[in-house]
Each structure stands twice: as C-alpha cells, then as structure tokens.
Amino acid sequence: MHNTVAVHNDLFYIGGNDRRISLFESAYPVPRGVSYNSYLLLDEKTVLFDTVDLAVSEVFFDNLAFLLKDRPLDCVVIHHMEPDHSDSFARLLEKYPNVRVIANQKTAQMLSNYYGFDSSRAHVVKEGDTFSSGKHTLRFVFAPMVHWPEVMFTYDETSQTLFSADAFGTFGALGGSIFADEVNFERDWLDDARRYYLNIVGKYGVQVQNALKKAAGLKISAVCPLHGPVWRKDFDRFLAKYSVWSGYQPEEKGVVVFYASVYGHTQNAAEILATELVKAGVKQVKTYDVSVTHVSELLSEAFRYSHAVFAATTYNNAIFPSMENLLRELQSHGFKNRKFAVIENGSWAAQSGGLMQAILTAMPNVTQIGEKATVLSAVNANSRASLEALAGEIAKDFLA
Ligand code: FEO
Q: Does the pLDDT value for residue 215 go beyond 90?
C-alpha cells in the first residue's frame, strides 16, 4: 500500500525503508536500518528521480502508481547507478516501457552493463544541461566520485531543490517524518551521518569539495538525498560538517584511544593512559576495543577527533589483526592532519609499535607525539611510568 509524503506542492517522496538489512553494501552494520529515497515530480511532464533497492521496491511501485493515477511516467532521472538506487530500474522499464531515461553518458553505459539497457535510447545530458518538465527547469550538475564516477545532481531551478544523490545522505531508516527539521538531527542522526559519509564517500574528499563549490552558488530551499532525511531548514549546519569532513580536518578536539588486547594487559595500558589524560586536563577522551567495535565506527571516531592513540599487542610478529585492519582502513580513506601516539605490547618480541608508527607516519600530516610506550606482557612500574609520561606529552600538545 502506498505511503508518500509531499516535499513541495508537486514533489513527493516515494522511497522506502529497510530495517532488516544487517550489513549495508555487505560491509556496514545499520542497526537503525537505511532508507532508499526516490522522488516524483508531478509537473506537465511526470519526472521520477532515481529508483530504489529491490528490498523496498514494492512500496516504491505502489507509491508511483498511486501518485501517477492514470498519467504516464514521462521521465526518470538516474543520478547514481549503484544498485541500492538502480536495482528497480529494469522493473521500472517493464512497467513503464515508454519512459524517457535521462542520464549522463557514463550512467547510460552502466545501465547497459547492469541491466542490458539499450543505451542509445537514453536522453544523454552533459554538465549544465537543462530540461524543462513544464513549470520546472531541471539543471544537471555533475558530481563525479561522490560516490561513483557517473554521479550527478539535479538542481530544480524553479523550486530551488537540489537532488544530491549520495551526498548529504545518512544511514538510518526514516520513520514518521522524512524531514531533518522534524527530527533531532544532532542527537539522533549526526553519528550515523558521519559514519555514512566517512566510510562511503570519505575517500573522495577532493571531489566532494568540488561538488560543494558548485552547490555553494545555488539558492537552496530543499536538499533531497538518496538516503536519510530531506533538508528544508538549517542546511548550512550540515553543509559545514561536510566541509570539515571532506577537508579531512578534525571535527572536535579530543583524544580517542584504540586498543587491541588479547588477555587484557594492553587494555590495561590503554586505560591507564586514558585515565592519566583526563587527570592531566584532557576533557574529551574516548576508548574503544578495536576487536569489538565495528571498524566503520572506529574510522568515524578517528576522523572525528584531533588526537588518536593506538595500543596493540604483537601478534605473529605483526600488529594484532583488528588493529591492522583499522590502520589500513584509515590509510585507504585518506586519514590525515592528526596527531597520534602509540603503545605496543609483546611477550618476547614487541614489534607492533614500530609497525604502527610506519603506517601512520606515511600518512600526510599525521605526526607522532612522544616515543612509543612499550609493555612487556603486563604493565609494571617501568611501563606505567612510560604511560604516564606519554599521557603528559599528549596532554601538553592537546592543551597547548
Ligand atoms: Fe547509496 Fe553510492 O549508493
């Protein structure tokens, strides 16, 4: 049964929510589910903006049929080809065989690759092209690598609505309200928005900044992303977060302590350091066991704060695997502009510290505070003293 929401007089939300999915993109836990957004413009021509994942295609097609009534579907604009948005495309063509497919050249090719679409029948658009649906003029703004190369936005010049593809999306299913101004976004959504951005799009900060520059010149009354709430008010606050995230700058001053511990001794060392940091006046300290917390959350927290401590035991002459995984994820997402410190543990050949240092110092503008602290099996008076000294150096840098 249909379940639609009006965004403007003639623009409607027709997407759906999946709360049963455990791993989005087979990679990211989504305990609050995820929404797949799609929008329908009922102008002189009817224009659909993107389809949805198959998981929510039933309500999507019910919504589409309900709003179209006996009108044809004239056009579909495909902003992003990733199957969480295009999976219902083939079925859409079966149901609405005469629909005009508006896409850029890369998208048309991908539609062909994925769904056997005859790309010669696409209405191919270029950067800055416009399309009139009647009262509305739609302008196409390319946003390559936000998050795939074919991604484009549409700016509706008439209603000043930006269809932003994955940009400004979040994990989390919508419920009750689809609007950011009708939920407590800072309290209930921001952590998921950060985790979504940094894990999914975070690698492409330069391309996101390019897209933000294009968006900065637009008057915007609403932003309609492909996941999460629609923005009508206070969008500048969210835009400012995107500017910080895509600029790889810390969002907050704080120290996040990550540890990988087998029998609890490295945990003990990490927690001693965390306690000493607070005693030294560092107010924002958070501690995570990297073997327990999902790496997508760890990555998000590492990017959030100005300082990070990495404490790991040595395992098979290397870094404990869950810590190595976190470091590789940081590396592949372009981690930079941070301060870090290292604690290593080893019962007969402590090596993890040097190996962690090598990975971290190879990242741009990632600088080490102090010398690595070494624990031999369990914390003793000597290693406790080195942890206290390291905490003092971190606090000095932090409070400077
Ligand atoms: Fe929501 Fe890149 O797909």
A: no
Q: Using 50, 70 and 90 to split pLDDT, how confident is the model at 175?
A: confident
Question: Residue 178's CB: how many other CB atoms inside 10 A?
Answer: 20
193-220 mean pLDDT: 92
Which pLDDT score is estimated for 147?
Answer: 86
Pocket flag, ligand 1, residue 84 (CB < 6 Å): yes
How many CB atoms lie under 10 A from the CB of residue 183? 18
Distance CA 118, CA 107 (A): 12
Report how far ligand 1's centroid is from the alpha carbon of 147 (Å).
7
80 Cβ below 6 A of ligand 1: yes
Q: How far is the CA of 154 from the centre of ligand 1 (A)?
A: 16
Residue 25 has pLDDT above 90, yes or no: yes
- Average confidence score pLDDT of the chain: 97
Mean pLDDT of 83-95: 97
**Band of the pLDDT at 144, cuts 50, 70, 90?**
very high
Residue 37 Cα to ligand 1 midpoint, Å, equals 11
pLDDT at 297: 98
Sign of CA dihedral 66, 98, 100, 92: positive
Residue whose Cα lies nearest atom 3 of ligand 1: it is 82
Dist. CA 286–CA 84, nearest whole Å: 34
Class of CATH domain 252-399: alpha beta
Instruction: Give the Å distance between the CA of 82 and the centre of ligand 1.
Output: 5
Fold of 5-246: Metallo-beta-lactamase; Chain A (3.60.15)
CA distance 257 to 253: 13
- Supply the pLDDT for residue 264: 97
CB 82 within 8 A of CB 45: no
For the whole prediction, is pTM greater than 0.85? yes
Instruction: Break the chain into its structural domains and give their ranges.
Output: 5-246, 252-399
**166 within ligand 1 shell (Cβ under 6 A):** yes
Q: What is the per-residue pLDDT for 54?
A: 97
CB-side neighbour CA atoms (13 Å) of 12: 21
Give the C-alpha separation, 325 to 258, whole Å.
12
What are the Cα distances from residue 295, in Å, to 149, 271, 311, 351? 25, 20, 15, 22
Any idea of the CA torsion for 374, 380, 382, 388, to the nearest 10 degrees? 80
